[in-house]
Amino acid sequence: MAETATIFEVGPRDGLQNEKAQIATADKIALVDMLSASGLRKIEVTSFVSPRWVPQMADAAEVMAGITRAPGVDYAVLTPNAKGFEAARAARADEIAVFASASEGFSRKNINCSVAESLARFEPVMIAALAHGIPVRGYVSCITHCPYDGAVAPEAVLDVAEKLLAMGCYEVSLGDTIGAATPDTVSALLDVLLARIPAEKLAGHFHDTHGRALDNIDVCLAAGLRTFDAAVGGLGGCPYAPGAAGNVASEAVLGLLSERGFDTGVDAARLAEATRFARSLRT
Ligand code: HMG
Ligand code: MG
């Protein structure tokens, strides 16, 4: 039997968060429902963040209330703090994600606090989530480069990743926020991380700014990682990371994983329908 791999769909969140014109709530809901129908098992739907910081995600509660939940699909949301967690819980999110950075510059621009302050802020979120049986995913952004601080040392990524796992995150997603990683830098990073963290606790989150995302995923696959974040239609960008182009496209990751012999459970034809719709939402 083929080995399985997971595409963690982040298009409705990471993909759409950067769109300038407000996308209709009904269209966001329709996109999530099409993604559910394609066989994806993990879908990051939205973020419970400050609407002043990310206006596009201001309808998070309405989107969560409007989607049709497919059995076996986990609907995930981002939560930067306790306020976000309470809203996520009220919206019946299946899992939440806290998001930290390996670099100070991005942490300050993105969530208005230092890396250490962000981890302290996540502590009560983690405790409450775990008390309610809600799994928490952790992100580490800027795994090789920060748009503000430049090159990032693998040890800085290891430090934050280990702290997130020690706090109770079930998995840490490694964010190449501005798509600056290369197979060489990813390989050097994984050497450091995998000496301390099992591969099944790590996921790859690559933006395709310089067209290297699939090569970077290949390096991760060879190192034993089996979960990859991707956005349908290659939607994406981060409002607080200039130069962060779209996430690697889910359909391209599906192609790569299939070519490498992995089973993802995703139906390519149905995903293609979602891709067409996602592209039509771009402004
Ligand atoms: P702050 O201004 O320091 O927060 O922002 P504050 O606690 O002082 O609150 C300011 C205002 O925001 C208050 O409202 C709060 O109530 C409100 P006011 O009283 O002034 O009217 N507020 C909230 N409202 C709704 N939901 C909340 C919330 N929290 C506070 N959860 C804060 C700090 C973290 C809130 C802000 O910086 C923020 O929301 N940042 C989010 C930025 C973001 O979403 N970035 C994109 C996601 S990260 C990413 O894309 C990278 C990733 O893809 C991986 C990768 O690629 O590397 C994950
Ligand atoms: Mg991202």
Automatic annotation (TrEMBL):
Entry-linked InterPro entries: Aldolase_TIM (IPR013785), HMGL (IPR043594), PYR_CT (IPR000891)
EC number in record: 4.1.3.4
Highest taxon in the source lineage: Bacteria
Pyruvate carboxyltransferase domain span: 5-272
Pathway it works in: Metabolic intermediate metabolism; (S)-3-hydroxy-3-methylglutaryl-CoA degradation; acetoacetate from (S)-3-hydroxy-3-methylglutaryl-CoA: step 1/1
Enzyme category, top tier: lyase
Family of the protein in this entry: Belongs to the HMG-CoA lyase family.
Protein name as it appears in the record: hydroxymethylglutaryl-CoA lyase
